[in-house]
Write a structure and sequence with these properties.
Blueprint lengths: L8 H28 L7 H18 L4 H17 L8
Helix pairs in contact: 1-2
Length: 90
């Protein structure tokens, strides 16, 4: 996504339209989780951007180490969703 400004206008618009559809879909997932109580109340746009930004940044720093790939697959979901859990009441 960081190279979008270098694309021709028509291609850039096409890519941005797909990106917006994905963002909207992800926000709907977050809203559904808030509605059913599995996700605490949050700003869905900001939360979606934070999660997707974290995931989209992986190719910038990950360089193919198999051990690291397993660690990313194991830990990233936990790291990125831990803050979305609703507070447990006792």
């Amino acid at each position: 996504m960081s190279e979008i400004p270098t694309l021709k206008r028509s291609h850039r618009n096409e890519i941005l339209a797909v990106s917006r559809r994905h963002s909207t879909g992800f926000e709907k997932i977050l809203e559904s989780g808030i509605h059913d109580g599995s996700i605490k109340s949050c700003d869905v746009r900001m939360t979606g951007n934070a999660i997707m930004g974290s995931i989209n940044w992986i190719p910038k720093w990950f360089h193919g180490n198999a051990k690291m790939a397993k660690q990313i697959a194991r830990e990233f979901p936990e790291i990125l969703t831990k803050g979305l859990r609703p507070t447990e009441t006792t």
